[in-house]
C-alpha cells in the first residue's frame, strides 16, 4: 500500500530528525556549561 509506505518513510525521517535535534541540544548544553 502506497500510503502505508509513505507513512513509514515519514516516520523514519521524523525519528532521524529527532535524534539530530537531541544531539544538537546535548552539544549546546555542553557548550553553555563549558562557558559558565
Automatic annotation (TrEMBL):
Pinpoint the Flagellar basal-body/hook protein C-terminal domain residues: 1-33
One GO molecular function term? structural molecule activity
Q: Which GO terms describe its biological process?
A: bacterial-type flagellum assembly
Give the UniProt entry's GO cellular component terms.
bacterial-type flagellum hook
User: Pfam family example for this protein?
Assistant: Flg_bbr_C
Q: Which family does it belong to?
A: Belongs to the flagella basal body rod proteins family.
Protein name (Swiss-Prot/TrEMBL): Flagellar basal-body/hook protein C-terminal domain-containing protein
- Organism annotation: marine sediment metagenome
Amino acid at each position: 500500500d502506497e500510503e502505508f509506505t509513505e507513512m513509514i518513510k515519514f516516520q523514519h525521517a521524523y525519528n532521524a530528525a529527532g535524534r539530530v535535534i537531541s544531539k544538537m541540544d546535548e552539544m549546546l548544553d555542553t557548550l553553555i556549561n563549558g562557558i559558565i
